[in-house]
Structure prediction request, 1329 residues.
Amino acid sequence: MGWWLPKNIASYGADIDHLFYLILVATGFFFVITQGTLVYCMFRFNAKDGVKAKHIHGNTKLEIIWTAIPAIILLYIGFAQTPTWAKMKYIEIDTWFPIRYKGTNIESDLNVTVLGRQWEWRMRYPQGHIPADPQAWADLGNLHDLHVVNELHVWKDAKVKIHLKTQDVIHSFFMPNLRLKQDALPGKVMPMVFSPIEANVRYNPKTRLIEDLNPNSTWEIACAELCGGNHYRMRGKLFVHESKQDYELWFADALKNQRIHESTRLAPVVASSNGVNP
Amino acid sequence: MNHDSNHTTETKSGFLTTYLFSQDHKMIGIQFLFSGLIFFGIGGLLALLIRLQLAWPDGNLPYIGKWFPQSWGGKMSPEFYTMLFTMHASIMIFFVIIPWLTGTFGNFLIPLMIGARDMAFPKLNMFSYWVMWPAFIIILASFFVDGGAASSGWTSYPTLSNVGAEAGLEKIPAKAGEPIASYTVFKDDSFNSPSSPGAGMGQIFWLVSLIFVGIGSMMGSVNYITTILNMRAPGMDLMRMPLTVWSLFITAILQALALPVLTVALMLQLLDKLIATSFFLPPGGLSFGNWHTTPGGGQPLLWQHLFWFYSHPAVYIMILPAMGVVSDIIATFARKPMFGYKPMVFSMAAIASLGFIVWGHHMFQSGMDPRLGTGFMLATILIAVPSAIKTFNWLATLWGASILYTTAMLNALAFVSMFVIGGLSGIFMAATPVDVYFHDTYFIVAHIHYVLFMSSIFGIFAGITFWFPKMFGRLMNEPLGKVHFALTFIFGNLTFFPMHILGIGGHPRRYYDPTIYQYLENLQPLNQFMTISAMLLGLTQLLFVINIFYSLWFGEKAGKNPWNCNTLEWDAPSPPPHGNFEQIPVVQRGPYEYAIDGPIDYLTQSSTASDGVKHHE
Amino acid sequence: MAKCSSSLIPALPKLIGFVTLTLAVCVFMTLGCSNNNDAYPDDVVYPFRADLIVDEVPKLTHDRLPGPGQLDKAIGQIKELGGKTFSPKDLPENLRTELDTELQLTFGSPYKPSVGISTHTETIALAKSLKLDDETLAAGSKLYRRNCLHCHGLAGDGRGPTGPWVNPHPRDFRQGKFKFISSNPGGNKIKPRREDILRSLKAGVEGTSMPAFGLLGEQALEQLTSYVLHLSLRGEVEFETTRTLLKKKNSVTELFELLPDEEPAKETVQEFVKLYLKDLLKAYQKADAKGIEPASYPNFSDAEMLESVKRGYHLFSSSASDAFGCVSCHQDFGRQTLYQYDDWGTLVRPSNLTLSVYRGGRRPVDLYWRIKRGIPPSKMPAVTVPANEESQKIWDLVNFIEALPFPGLLPDDVRSKVYGQAIRGVAVLPENKK
Prediction:
């Protein structure tokens, strides 16, 4: 029905979803017992003639129990989510206290700069996928970088690092299927690191179109921080190619398209074959 | 400090003295009540417009599409929509909930419930209401300025909100080696902003208005703290105060400590806009197409820290008084002592203290060090513990009770029930990895509205209904009140519960037209359903307004203590005169002596009835 | 003391009845109110233009732009600054009504757009060949309303609610002029090719608020292009008619001076509209038929590329007769330019070419077109170059422009002239040394 979590394709996504379900179960349990008790009380202890309420001011033991149990459950949730948080943000921990931040330490397969601006996402892909100095490349770029608007192309199982920038106001790069969002702050370059575990497109070099691997696999990008009137229209699409070779086929054609010296129609290596939401 | 000298010199009690220049805390409380009611209506209308747009984002707005300029094509513009949700939130938070909870209940109840004749600083009290009027006028005027009212969200994040016109600068030479040889800066006397139309004069008016509100609240909190600490009646130990007073006391401390931070932040942003300071402008300058701003020396993130340092305690400011009010009402109509009085007091204090160290949970995505995120996460998760304690105590109060279902009681019970939902949904956001997904989606909006509308407002409805007889000497109409309650409860849940589902589906907030996204298409029927419920919810509130005004003149007359309640305010006449009590009562016991053996089942705080009456701990 | 409590249970049946009733109302309303028709309301019409018509712009330069929300105020100042503007309000009532009616008949309303009156068969045929048939236009109208209206305005006037608040302002289609075109020079009506509009839609206009709409899909973009052309045609007819009438003291006869090759049956506003529209359609057809074919791109080795960049530098910065002298407008490679008026009365400036931001597209062919064609409404001239030198000269210049933002790609002497000693902190990226 489309009324639940979107499909998860992030390597850490299953952990997040499990955490979500854990919390759902815990809160659901407490929801049921509290609301149930409330409704029960409302009917059972309705004022009846001749029946007086019990004169009780409190019960210390009870207080301790219902302080300790929620505290324990909540602390458990708190500690249960630390590994997930670590998985998202830190390189594999071998100690229980993670200290190597992924954003600055990862060796990524793919670096992409994403510039959020009013009101679109401008992506820039490096010609060689691993620039020698990613930070400098993120700042300065290269003539033969591929510039794409509103499309993020990665490949399955790639270690992707996004250098998120903005030149005007705060935007937030939100990919629901990757359970990931990051605010883009003016004046800063924010890293986002993820690895998709599933693919949704394949590039067809003959038709020069991107084909969906299965019908319902449109994965989108949205802006998640108010950035002006057109905040709602910063829509992008996430393309996870089925393999690195597939990505490189697309990249080569897209770059050729960008380096075109002849007058042809803007070649259709732009979006997936099914135009959406006309 | 006694005010006997004050109230006996009441020679000229004309309209002006009674209503405009009143220093009587009761009148000031009622003033807050009525101005809050007006803004409740305005804020509600804004909300309905938001929901209309969300239900039919691309359609022709039913009925009101014709009111927009024809050049807009029969629908509202995206900028107008951003203004709507900004002003809806700002008005509801700063002009409805906080004035109703701290202004009305705080002012009216504190002196009465502690057995004082008036506040410690009556003149300051009068000013605390007066200073709201510039705020009212400015915030309403902001709708009519060039560019429209503020539209950067009630959170007003730079750099959307604070980029303004440079005063006096035209061309700034770049430093050697920079690729751009000079920055051409626009010079504009109209304060318009390149980031959005509403970030111009509208934003400035918003900032000024909120500064006034902050000043009024700070005046009030000083008053409350002093009054509660210094002017309690003899025998009114701190641990004998009703929970309403405790909640208002703790709220006042929260306000006193947190508001200055917000006020300063608002002033800093105002300076950014008016005289080209750069508290929140980053080095490197910003680029809005052809308009470029000069490089700043500040940090947009600084605003977020300052703002949330206030606004997180603010949400506790908006719930604690309601919790206190609801506790008293539940004890009264359950005819049973409040279960766990001391734990209730300590948990309110715990909520307030913990509330100061959790502000970062609004900023998990901002780019802070993840370790800092873990710290905030732990504190946030722990705040659920005192809230849980309170909930269990309310339930334990009801267990073995003898419940009378008055309108006030029904509203109070709804508070408990809905607060459970609102509080539990908060736990999802406390867990940082899950919050990364839910941040800025409708899950947050659901949480907000469950704790603010379905909890605080129900608490306010309960409180107004409960103390209406004390305020005006007449009872509110019970059947009408019950119908209003039932419909509000039903339509409120129908409106706000589906927002959780939207959030789980990943529906972002502040979206003018979500249907351009494929993954949100299936959720659109929910949007339409919620809009219809919201419209019915809005209509239902008319019943409450009608009830108030009807009862003011035609309500059944009330005696001193229509609810058989223990607290001190019920010893005074309904309504109390200046000076409240003929004789200051002497407090003999705590406020929750119900279910007493004997001919009547309650023992008021001031009652000197023999303590031979058996009551067990 | 009043007895003011009652037990919950007896109220329950009443409550249930109430709730059922209201839920029934809910359902009823939902059924009736599901209106997500995304077309314009049928009572919305294209309003007759009310804002000023810019006839001549001042030859002034400015060092600053007007602020947000000042668009019409700034255009209102053009007259004082030496330009010429006309107010459509000065048009006599009868002429205005005639024109308005004829425009409505010819171009329809936003709800039901069209190009040409059904009885004018030649016009209809031309329109159809340009994909301006009613069906395409109706679909385009819905898309426009959803995606473009709030910037580009109802009549394509660039004055939607967002319009005055962004800079550069959204294009006002009503003069029938477009900036980034690749149609062949020649003729007095410079019209874009269909492909040019599609390019702007697909790739957006980088550095402005015009987003890229590539994700809408081919079919939607084609429909939008048709609708944009429709708005442009309507706007231009309205613009030209009103301007000429106001200029020539409301003389309808003078209108036909604009159509020297036509033999009007009678000299009325209606007849002029019909013939002028036909004229415009023919111009679009001609533009579409043949675009500028860039000369072939030579193959450059690394050393040859450096030489090409050097030659391009010379073409850019020298004012000798064999060079193009771009630097006279793009002072300091675009870093120190002043604003001047474009044909729409707004302020623009020669772009900063050191940023690697190209509004008309960053493909080499786009740059070629900009150089070869100029940007007529913004006063960027087309280059004059003998046909045999075209290939080498223009591609040399393109190579230079492309290398310009990247210091590592420039020959040493050029680099020092452009960037001086300091180069943005990092000297050269290893990959840039190709």
